[in-house]
Amino acid sequence: MNIDVGLLSIIALGSMLLMLLTGLPVTFVLLSLSAICFWFLRGLPATSSLGIVFFSTITTDIFIALPTFIFMATVLEISGLGAAMYDMMHKWMAGLRGGLAMGTIAIATVMAAFTGSAATATLTMGLLAYPEMEQRGYDRRMIIGVIPAGGSLGPLIPPSVPMIVVAAVSQISIGKLFIAGIIPGVITSIGYIAYVGIRCWKNPGMGPPLPPEERVGFREKMISLRKSIMPIILIFLVLGLIYLGIATPSEAGGVGAVGALICAAIYRNLTWRNLQKATTTAIRITAMLMWLLAAGGAFSQLIGVLGVQGYLRELLLALPVSRWAIVVGILFLVFILGMFIDATPITVIFLPIFYPIVMALGFDLLWFGLLFTMDLLVGIMTPPFGMVLFYFKGLNLPGVTMMDIYRAIVPFFLIMMLVMVLVFFIPDLAVWLPNQMIK
């Protein structure tokens, strides 16, 4: 059929967006649209190629890391480490102005590292930290802001499941992308903590310190630290194995999974019921991601056959603007999409279109991969449809409205945007540490 590539691009992408707006599952949209288009363009026998794409996608070596890291996260989630770590932070920092809020961000950062999920960190810290801070007289806007902000670090702090998806789709090294997220993730967490500290220092009523008679001694602080040290050691072990070149990400994920089981056993939470729950959750999440990735592979095959990638690349490269303006336009589009669509569908649908353009423009793909991940993170924080905001609202905390959450998240959203701008203008924040890795 002799149809203009530009028209085909509009039809393919427009049909996909219209089907998504109907509320159909993303996997169904991508698979059905790919099958229908192959059938229409090349006949029924051509649809069999989708089965080959489907199988080759889910059996790719890079995806071996997915189930291991997911299983590690689910085991750590049921091990009770979140409560132990929050108890530790409460004893160490509650005597400071805003100490509980700063501790909440710090613990959410660590939880993000061992779960890789914004949902888990947000929900866990919402249940643990919200009642405690409310009881201590913290300003409600401060409480509501720090919990989803800290939880949203999940996709950025390695080991991160969204990073695995980004790396797989764009053919970036998973290990390098993990390490690239460390410096921006730490800067963002420090930025959140600094904001809380400054606000509570200027206005003590926003985060009053614990009265002296309720504070604990050094001995109890050390005991609480001992109870919380295991998951931190595990995360450093996993990332250290990758950084030093001792293990591949897949092998390090296996070490992390075994280490998570050991942690749960030490904390006496490795019961048959908990193990069954963790395994079932890991299988469900892995299956969902694999279906979505396979569907994304089929759709990528379709747009490759249609020539959409080449058409858009030539179209953008021909624009009378600088290459930096093109990258900014791509990131802005991802930001807008992130306000309405979850991170994984955006990655599997649009990243295969964008990363060849970025390569053709001569940019470092690792740098762009981290910026893309951070852009997704900003999207899940952004009203009106930021997913992490709905995770927090799903706790149904008394008196907390969506408008309260929208107002409270704004300062933290701006901090994340600032860090992203820093990474954009100072690429070494993303690429310096991965470039020091032992091959």
Radius of gyration: 23 Å
What is the overall shape? globular
User: What structural class do you assign from the helix and strand content?
Assistant: mainly alpha
Strand content: under 5%
Q: Count the beta strands.
A: 0
Largest sheet: none
Q: List SSEs in N-to-C order.
A: HHHHHHHHHHHHHHHHHHHHH
Estimate nothing, just give the exact number of structural domains: 1
Question: How many separate helices?
Answer: 21
Between the first and last Cα atoms, what is the distance in angstroms? 48 Å
User: Which stretches of 5+ consecutive residues score pLDDT under 50?
Assistant: none
User: Roughly what is the average pLDDT, rounded to an integer?
Assistant: 80
Helical residue percent band: over 70%
What is this structure's SSE topology?
Elements: H1 5-21, H2 26-42, H3 48-58, H4 65-78, H5 81-93, H6 99-115, H7 118-135, H8 140-151, H9 161-170, H10 174-180, H11 182-202, H12 218-243, H13 249-266, H14 272-306, H15 308-317, H16 323-338, H17 343-360, H18 365-381, H19 387-393, H20 402-425, H21 428-435
Helix pairs in contact: 1-2, 2-14, 3-14, 4-13, 4-14, 5-6, 5-12, 6-7, 6-8, 6-11, 7-8, 7-19, 8-19, 8-20, 9-17, 9-18, 10-21, 11-20, 12-13, 14-17, 15-17, 16-17, 16-18, 17-18, 18-20, 19-20
